[in-house]
Write a structure and sequence with these properties.
Layout lengths: L4 E6 L5 H17 L2 E4 L5 H6 L2 E2 L5 E5 L6 E2 L6 E4 L10 E5 L1 H14 L4 E7 L3 H16 L4 E6 L11 H12 L4 E5 L2 H13 L8 E6 L3 H6 L5 E5 L1 H16 L8 E4 L1 E5 L12 H12 L7 H8 L3 H11 L4 H19 L4 H7 L5 H12 L3 H8 L3
Parallel strand pairs: 1-2, 1-4, 3-5, 4-6, 6-7, 7-13, 8-9, 8-10, 10-11, 11-12
Antiparallel strand pairs: 12-14
Helix pairs in contact: 1-8, 3-4, 9-10, 12-14, 13-14
Length: 384
């Protein structure tokens, strides 16, 4: 029996994104190994501060921030997880689909009726700058303006009274309200929520906030709980391990880039609001959300709004660019998806909860709305 591949893994375990990468890598190695991992739990800052020798390994999986102090051998197969934008040209790289991330935030804000938009991110992080650019570009397509603020990561450690922090607070206060704000990641988003609370800016009524990474600790510790975009880091880790395996076996690999797509947007209190000044539309949307488990008739929704159905349909098309039925089906699809994630109920049980006659009817509905079956959706949430 040949010896296991020795793989150096320099990936942080302090955050959910890193742990998902590691989980995907470990599962691939378990299925196709064995591999011997050289790895230890650590955070991003420790990765950047440690030097290491790469000569003794068959392959390397590494955050690019850790490459700064590496004594590397270019002949050793290496797959880089892009973090600081330090990867060498021609490297095999895993990164995030920043265009999809930003578009997800914009679509959510537009769906909720916002007209004012803002982005806050880091001034010296390539991934943050990409997300800002895609956020602005998507809004330009809607002929909307995005107000931007770039910060230094060192601001996180400063008191709110510091002049640099006061400048950020002034920017938040001067934003036209209500405003929809996308933060480059959950760290920035949580900090923005803290600043809003200190400046008496109501979240989400005056400022709705969405972060990126969906780290359960950060989102749960935020006040109010933070809405966030989850990225398919598990799949990225699994695919990166598969790529490294091919390289270690000496195979020719043409694909040098792996992009982790958006998994889902998890809506929590920080963005759960409708910025719509049309009372009838607001009433209809609230009624839809409150009764998402019922197979409502469109006439019943119209009665709740105080308008005839035809009049309400015209307003929905003009303001939300959807029909009543399209929006209600979308809301029901999101509610079903949440139950699939939060419970272990069978499809038959969920079908009954949502008023479907059979699980097959639920499956057809969900496939039409989400583009995948309930079983596949649930499996992607719990891949291990």
């Amino acid at each position: 029996m040949s010896r296991p591949f020795r793989v150096l893994m320099k990936i942080e375990s302090s955050r959910e994104s890193g742990r998902k990468l590691i989980s995907g890598i470990a599962d691939y190695a378990r299925e196709h190994g064995p591999w011997q991992f050289i790895w230890e739990p650590q955070g991003i800052k420790r990765l950047a501060g440690r030097s290491y020798d790469t000569q003794r390994y068959d392959g390397i999986l590494v955050r690019d921030i850790s490459l700064m102090n590496a004594r590397s051998n270019r002949s050793i197969p290496t797959v880089v997880f892009s973090y600081a934008g330090k990867s060498k040209q021609g490297a095999f790289v895993c990164t995030t689909n920043d265009q999809m991330i930003s578009q997800t935030a914009v679509e959510e804000f537009l769906k909720r009726g916002f007209k004012n938009f803002a982005f806050c991110g880091f001034k010296d992080s390539p991934w943050s700058l990409r997300r800002e650019r895609h956020f602005v570009d998507r809004l330009n397509q809607e002929k909307r303006r995005a107000r931007k603020y770039k910060i230094e990561s060192s601001l996180f450690g400063l008191a709110n009274e510091d002049r640099k922090v006061e400048a950020v607070v002034d920017w938040l206060l001067q934003l036209p309200k209500p405003v929809a704000l996308m933060a480059a990641n959950d760290d920035v988003a949580r900090w923005i929520l803290q600043l809003c609370r200190g400046a008496s800016i109501r979240v989400p009524e005056a400022c709705a906030v969405i972060g990126v990474d969906n780290d359960p600790v950060i989102c749960g510790m935020s006040t109010p709980p933070l809405s966030s975009i989850s990225i398919e880091q598990y799949r990225s880790g699994y695919d990166a391990a598969e790529l490294l395996h091919k390289l270690m076996r000496g195979e020719n690999v043409s694909k040098r880039l792996i992009e982790a797509p958006v998994e889902k947007l998890v809506v929590r209190q920080s963005s759960d609001v409708f910025a719509i000044d049309d009372l009838s539309i607001s009433k209809a949307l609230r009624f839809m959300h409150q009764h998402a488990r019922q197979n409502l008739k469109m006439d019943a929704i119209a009665r709740e709004s105080g308008l005839h159905r035809r009049a309400l349909e015209r307003r929905f098309k003009a303001r939300l660019r959807q029909t009543l039925r399209e929006r209600f089906h979308e809301i029901r699809g999101d509610a079903i998806a949440q139950v699939l994630v939060d419970s272990h109920d069978t499809l038959e049980t969920i079908a009954e909860q949502f008023g479907f006659s059979h699980a097959s009817a639920l499956t057809r509905f969900f496939l039409k709305i989400k583009g995948q079956t309930p079983s596949r959706f649930r499996k992607r949430q719990y891949p291990v």
